[in-house]
Amino acid sequence: MAPVHAISATLVALTASAVYYVPEQLKPAPEVETWLFFDGVCNLCDGFVNFVYQGDSTGRIRFGALQKHKELLERLGVGRYAEGGEEAMTTVVVIQGQE
Q1: Are strands 61-65 and 93-96 parallel, antiparallel or unpaired?
Q2: Residue 16 falls inside a structural domain
Q3: Which of 17, 37, 59, 72 keeps 20 to 30 A from 51, CA to CA?
Q4: Cα–Cα distance between 22 and 13 in angstroms, integer?
Q5: Signal sequence: where (predicted)?
Q6: Domain-embedded: residue 36
Q7: Structural domain that includes position 70
Q8: Of 81, 86, 99, 85, which is closest to residue 37 (Cα–Cα)?
Q9: Distance between CA atoms of residues 86 and 29, nearest Å
């Protein structure tokens, strides 16, 4: 029987690799624009954005603070997440293409 720490290390390694693996059918087409909007004054959001930015080796994701992109969010139908909306600064919004 394998030692408990060896089993734990294996589970951690498998979990970590699963986090970085994205099946091809879930990846957007290269021409699809991806935006990640976040609360620009939230330290937790900033940490998450930095994590995503570091993992975006192709540089395909564009980032923007919810507070600075109100017009774009409204045009895409998610203006309620912009500053002053009913769900203002409560979440991170990802838009791929027009969805």
Answers
A1: unpaired
A2: no
A3: 72
A4: 16
A5: 1-17
A6: yes
A7: 24-96
A8: 81
A9: 32
